[in-house]
Amino acid sequence: MPIIPILLFILIWEALSSSGIFNAVLFPPPSKVFLALLGLALSGELFLHLSASLSRVYLGLLVGSVLGIAVGLLTGRIRIIDKSMSPLLHVFRSFPAVAIIPLVIVWFGIGETAKLFSISFAVFFPVWMNTHIGASSIPVRYVQMLSIFKTPSFKKWSKVILPASSEFIIAGVRTGIAIAFIMVFVSELAGASSGVGYIISISQLSYRMDVMIAGLFVLGLLGAVTDFAFIRLIKAIFPWFGKK
Amino acid sequence: MKKLEIRGLCVSYNGMPVLEDLQLDAEEGEFVAIVGKSGCGKTTLLNAIAGFVKYSGSITKPDTLGMVSQDYAVFPWLTAGENISFGMTKNDEAVLQHYLKMIDLLDKRDRYPFELSGGQKQRLALARALVSNPDLVLMDEPYGALDIFTREKMQRWLMHIWEHERKTILFVTHSIDEALLLADRVLLLNDGAIQKEFRVGLKRPRAEGTEFSQAFLKSKMAIRRALS
Q: What are the structural domains of chain A?
């Protein structure tokens, strides 16, 4: 069933591009985009640049998420940390993540550190915000059980607070996944010698719109696949997740 | 020996008094039921004993408490076995097996709460409360969310457990029948204080059909008259 709208979209796009209504150079049909993608795959370039982009995405996602979860749990449960840190975090959260890239380039150059920083920075905030909300809205009864059982600190955090906040944490990480893919593209556009964003930026110089669109689709598809795989992984590791 | 002694207990919410000058005692091994209309302060009383709300007055209670509430409060992310283990200070497989067997969930040890029925979850909540060997167990309308058949089954099961464990239990309910069936004493909570006390003179263990006996019905009428 889900395949039908996709096929319909491709057919309409093919028809419009081939009809002559639009400039086929600027708006290539999907058949041409597919051939461009095939060319990249057969030459080995696709794998090379995909690996570069994906490693940046996943590392940035990991660093941003771990920090976001840690800080979110603290601000969500410890009032003094919340009152002192949250106002500043809310200010930083409002910075458009894309807009900090020029600053990042000045600080770190155009190497891997800059890209890691940009992606982690952008991922951190939705993860932090969601974790904070989850941790601060744990059902009162669970917190009361901690008091009844005189639960020691480590057990309290690992066996109750973290899992009780998990629904919100997962939602935050899923938002982080989408943002990580956006940020890897933007940071590769700003300066890189590898990656899907790099392919797209050099294709623009030679008006290879088919390669540009192919690159965009690959990124988008990988973003969707990553999100799908992530949620499947969560449900496989935690069978109780999402169940009432 | 007294396990619980409450004197002059007062609790207010936003300046509105909920409990006023409440006195209550419970002896070791005693099953005390508290009945009252909705909103009379039954849950507030248990929350004050558990230390969840601010109060004035004095509450002398044991160090270790157990608590079971209507919404079970079992952790959805832990299996049945892990939920019971959570109540232990030290992991002990033999103790865990004992409690799983007691609540008839030995074969469901690795199931999660979403895979259990309401009655199974409530038994799990009680096992978790008992495994820490509390000196006082607070039960806040634990069977309120169950259907009548499961509720009756759970009442019989609780009586059977209590006969063996002989814990001091403070059991809040709005059902007079349930209070008389389970308890040694029934306390009426009204206008923020214990208005009246009824000693339940029914024989233990409670026989099948106790709730239809003349003594039971007489006690029930007396409590109803006092409540109205």
A: 53-237 (1.10.3720.10)
